[in-house]
Amino acid sequence: MFLQFGRILGAVLAVLALNVMPVFAAEGNVDWDSRVITVTGMGAAPTNVVNPAQARMMARRAAVVDGYRQLAEAVKGVNVDSETTVENMMVTSDVIKTKVSGLIQGASVVAEQVIPGGGYEVTMQMPMFGGNNSLASAVMPAAQAAPEAFPAPASNGSSAADAPAGHAEGVYTGLVVDCRGLGLKPIMSPVIKNEQGSPIYGFKNLDYDKVIQYGMASYSNDPANVARAGAHPLVVKAVRVENHNGYPVISLSDANKVLIENGATHFLDATCVVFIR
Question: Could you tell me if residue 66 is inside a domain?
């Protein structure tokens, strides 16, 4: 079990585990579209309880312990960039370890119920983005550099790469990159490249507070579920994925069109980006 998230979480789990009986359930679910981590913890009361009220209380406590365990397992596998998981960052930074441990302790119980036969079930959630109480705030510090070299801010004020010459239609509200069939891996800090290897969208030049609040992109399995990109998105098809399947690559012509249109409506600056996988 992944209970070594730091002394704080370890102490909490040790106390909660006294006289309770966790019932290990399915592992947590990282929802990259809704940008939350959800787990279902289950527990049962010990046999030496003295009344039904105590049994219910102890079963609930056991379910919460199981929820913490599952959150720890789920969080450690989240990819921050194409090569780095949260677990990697916690190993190298005690500060990040402590922050993540605190976030797990602060996870919300969003649903709970008594299970017939003496068990208890709690559904717990932890936000990946959304401000100072999110996973992003712990693992994406303001001073963090982009995962690879990225061009200076564009001359038109956009945080994306500079746009080539061309006429913009100026009607697009966002960007949808269709990556179906390519095995795209969801990550917190994706980079979009053109087929010549030049990045056109990445974390380094985006507004930090906006990235922490909303993330850089949503990941959807449904082409109809792309609300983040607005009512009239520009849709392009990825030609491949790179960097351990974390970075979509689009054709040079599509990349140029994206940059030209972004110069007019700045949808990349607003992080109105959806990846379909």
Answer: yes
N-terminal to C-terminal alpha carbon distance within the chain? 30
Q: What is the mean pLDDT of the chain?
A: 84
The pair of structure tokens assigned to 120 is: 């208890």
- Which ranges of the chain have pLDDT less than 50? 1-27, 144-158
- How far apart are alpha carbons 184 and 247 in whole angstroms? 8
Give every CB contact of residue 57 below 8 A, 6+ residues apart in sequence. Answer: none
Q: Is the Cβ–Cβ distance between 191 and 231 less than 8 Å?
A: no
26-41 per-position pLDDT tens digit? 345 899 888 899 999 9
User: What is the C-alpha separation between 236 and 260, in angstroms, rounded?
Assistant: 14
CB atoms within 10 A of CB 17: 17
In a domain, 165, yes or no: no
Indicate the SS3 state at residue 220.
Answer: strand
Same domain (yes/no): 201, 117: no
The 10s digit of each residue's pLDDT in 98-124 is 999 999 999 999 999 998 888 999 999
Rounded to an integer, what distance in angstroms lies between the CA atom of residue 38 and that of residue 127? 9
Indicate the number of domains in the chain.
Answer: 2
